[in-house]
């Protein structure tokens, strides 16, 4: 009996030691995982629940409750004006949908700047400031242009006083409010179909652009973000582009003045040279 009791005691002590070892390992792993989680939280600021779109949406499409869901995003990298409350995104007192103002990809967070107010249609009128007008310009390629960017506009054509075509900067830093993305298919000869770009302009600028579009060709040059450099007059013709200067006309000496008098000799009239007195 004593031997049996001793064996049981030894087995119990062994099991207790193993349990303590296993518990110590578990606590160590748990503490390590906790420290990693705290480090990640310190770097990200923690995770915040915000609403994202469940599919890719394009400009002008309606946005309903079926198109959104909640997702966790890092707080430190979260854009401003997101939605974390469905009652704010879709108020109960207004059952009209919101409309998309900027293209969003699947699971992209919904921002207040990317959607209209409930029931408000997406359109160009909302992009125009007081006194401004929308004017569409034909462009050959618009893939790199986006609404909200600014462009300089150059006109190429001929004038009455020019011997050939000239290119002149006619408008600077015009804001793009819309870009036509349709018609990307090529024509039968391989050329790219024209598309349209819409800019915000004053009535005077609209008249100038309409005249320029009717009398020549327009080319857009993208302006960098935040570039407010004032651009003076820019005009280039073929000669100045190639560095060709007009040749000066040769200077010729004035012809010497010859003075004569007429004298009649019989039936003939003869001119006789004499010194000029003036």
From TrEMBL:
<feature type="domain" description="SAF">
    <location>
        <begin position="48"/>
        <end position="116"/>
    </location>
</feature>
<dbReference type="InterPro" id="IPR031571">
    <property type="entry name" value="RcpC_dom"/>
</dbReference>
<dbReference type="InterPro" id="IPR017592">
    <property type="entry name" value="Pilus_assmbl_Flp-typ_CpaB"/>
</dbReference>
<dbReference type="Pfam" id="PF16976">
    <property type="entry name" value="RcpC"/>
</dbReference>
<dbReference type="InterPro" id="IPR013974">
    <property type="entry name" value="SAF"/>
</dbReference>
<protein>
    <submittedName>
        <fullName>Flp pilus assembly protein CpaB</fullName>
    </submittedName>
</protein>
């Amino acid at each position: 009996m004593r031997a049996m009791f001793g064996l049981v005691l030894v087995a119990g002590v062994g099991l207790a030691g193993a349990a303590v070892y296993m518990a110590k390992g578990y606590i160590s792993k748990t503490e390590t995982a906790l420290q990693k989680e705290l480090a990640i939280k310190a770097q990200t600021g923690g995770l915040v629940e915000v609403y994202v779109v469940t599919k890719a949406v394009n400009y002008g499409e309606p946005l309903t409750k079926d198109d959104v869901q909640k997702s966790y995003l890092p707080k430190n990298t979260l854009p401003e004006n997101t939605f974390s409350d469905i009652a704010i995104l879709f108020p109960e007192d207004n059952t009209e949908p919101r409309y998309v103002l900027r293209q969003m990809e699947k699971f992209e967070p919904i921002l207040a700047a990317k959607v209209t107010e409930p029931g408000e249609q997406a359109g160009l009128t909302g992009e125009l400031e007081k006194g401004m007008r929308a004017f569409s310009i034909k462009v050959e390629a618009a893939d790199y242009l986006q609404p909200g960017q600014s462009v300089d506009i150059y006109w190429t054509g001929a004038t009455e006083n020019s011997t050939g075509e000239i290119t002149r900067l006619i408008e600077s830093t015009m804001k793009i409010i819309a870009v036509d993305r349709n018609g990307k298919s090529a024509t039968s000869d391989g050329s790219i179909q024209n598309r349209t770009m819409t800019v915000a302009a004053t009535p005077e600028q609209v008249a100038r652009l309409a005249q320029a579009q009717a009398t020549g060709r327009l080319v857009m040059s993208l302006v960098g973000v935040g570039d407010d450099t004032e651009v003076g007059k820019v005009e280039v013709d073929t000669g100045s582009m190639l560095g060709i200067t007009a040749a000066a006309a040769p200077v010729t000496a004035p012809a010497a003045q010859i003075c004569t008098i007429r004298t009649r000799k019989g039936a003939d009239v003869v001119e006789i040279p004499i010194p000029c007195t003036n």
